[in-house]
Amino acid sequence: MAQLETCWNEVHRRIDKTCRQAGRDPSSVRLIAVSKTRTVPEITALHALGQQRFGENYVQEFVAKWEALALPALEPPLEWHFIGALQRNKTRAVAERADWVHGIDRLNIAQRLSKQRPDSHPPLQVCLQVNLSGEPGKAGVAEADLEPLAAAVAELPGLRLRGLMTLPAPSTDPAEQRRPFRRLRELHDRLNTRGHRLDTLSMGMSGDLEAAILEGATLVRVGTALFGPRNAQGTQA
Ligand SMILES: *Cc1c(COP(=O)(O)O)cnc(C)c1O
User: Fold this and answer.
1) Which of 209, 146, 212, 208 is nearest to 182 (CA)?
2) Looking at the domain assignment, is residue 51 inside a domain?
3) Entry's InterPro entries (predicted)?
4) What's the total number of domains in the chain?
5) Whose CA is nearest to atom 10 of ligand 1?
6) What's the CATH code of the domain at 151?
7) What's the pLDDT band for 231 if we cut at 50, 70, 90?
8) CB of 81 within 8 A of CB of 55?
């Protein structure tokens, strides 16, 4: 696990360096450790280093890890971010366990999550996923449909709309990497001028977190740079 500590420190070094470059306070960027396909001992080892936020993509895998880590409760408590695609028949498991959901791109999924959120829990914090490439079939709401979706989601009592998320096509060119992140920030700011109170940009992964932070990311979702490469297949829900 010494390797994990080295990687964790390195990711924080990258975040801090980029924040200095951007004139941002490093505490304005939160790290989500994307633990999909990773084991429970890897999660607890990272938590022992001080990592609190974890991201999972597959419902079944998320539930299994959540159950395994629920008791004895870790201190400080884990914060779970569901960052994968969510099907209608799997919303309840997430509504009952997650702290955040990042991939909301349809009202009916948001409505189900709101209805299924237990009253004993605080509202589920959500980001709307935006498809900035315009490719049909890709996850995310189209830009043209974002405002009406945001307006409808903001009304749901079981949810709290926090911001926007995007997952652009990978690029190794820093200027190219920044373009969709800049666009997401513009959309975020525009929603705020229309009366929303968003404070979250979930953008940036292992290969492009610098570009995302330079454009205003507040949550970066990092897997490979922390844990090493995943198996090609990953784990399916
Ligand atoms: C897997 C995944 C990540 C992490 O990607 P890395 O390149 O391994 O850092 C981030 N966000 C989402 C939505 C993912 O599915």
Assistant:
1) 212
2) yes
3) Ala_racemase_N, PLP-binding_barrel, PyrdxlP_homeostasis
4) 1
5) 221
6) 3.20.20.10
7) confident
8) yes
As a whole number of angstroms, the distance between CA 62 and CA 37 comes to 10
As a whole number, mean pLDDT of residues 165-183 equals: 95
The mean predicted confidence, pLDDT, of the chain is 95
Domain span at 109: 2-227
Residue 127 lies in a domain: yes
Specify if 232 maps to a domain.
no
Ligand 1 atom nearest to CA at 225: 9
> Can you tell me the mean pLDDT for 131-146?
90
How much is the pLDDT for 134? 78
pTM over 0.90? The answer is yes
Record the tokens describing residue 187, joined without a space.
């959309």
Half-sphere exposure in the Cβ direction for 196 (13 Å, CA): 26
pLDDT tens digits for range 36-59:
999 999 999 999 999 999 999 999
- Is residue 86 domain-resident? yes
Of 138, 165, 205, 224, the residue with max ligand 1 atoms within 8 A of its CB, to mutate for a pocket test, comes to: 205
The pLDDT value given to residue 149: 98
Closest residue by Cα to atom 11, ligand 1, is: 221
User: Which residues form the pocket of ligand 1, taking CB atoms under 6 Å from any ligand atom?
Assistant: 34, 36, 57, 83, 167, 205-207, 221-225
